[in-house]
């Protein structure tokens, strides 16, 4: 008897399977990066609400290596310098590709050279990369520069 009631209940009120859709909206938080750089060092600073931390990337072509290589051959020195510089820029590019908005700043043309390399690579097409000249700076000055630069951009958007 219970089975009959249960069957009648099932026929009169069949369980309705409501499709469930889970929409995964990718949170796109703008990731902003400041890089103070010259031809020897790059100080990398991610703009966050936390205190900014700096990591460094150094070119492998040091002044000492330049002196040693130049002693053997000027042509060899230039080839080695170009190779090491390309590796330096490639390492910076690998970091930059994980960000949406990047400011390159510093006292030399290294920032412009890096920008020109990145513009030729389609992987950087959707990344906003800007360049500004800046003097030698202390770490605190670099942090203030990055904080001010991205705070202005956030305010204007």
Structural features, described:
This protein is α/β, with parallel strands linked by helices. 46% of the residues lie in helices and 19% in strands. It has 5 helices and 5 strands. The chain has helices spanning 2-12, 63-72, 74-96, 110-119, 139-156, and strands at 32-37, 41-47, 54-58, 101-106, 128-133. Strands 3-2-1-4-5 form a 5-stranded mixed β-sheet, with helices on both faces. Strand 2 and strand 3 (54-58) form a beta hairpin. It is globular, with a radius of gyration of 27 Å. The N and C termini lie far apart (70 Å).
| Structural classification | alpha/beta
For the biggest β-sheet, the strand order reads 3-2-1-4-5
Helical segment tally?
Answer: 5
Number-wise, the strands total: 5
Secondary structure topology:
Elements: H1 2-12, E1 32-37, E2 41-47, E3 54-58, H2 63-72, H3 74-96, E4 101-106, H4 110-119, E5 128-133, H5 139-156
Parallel strand pairs: 1-4, 4-5
Antiparallel strand pairs: 1-2, 2-3
Helix pairs in contact: 2-3
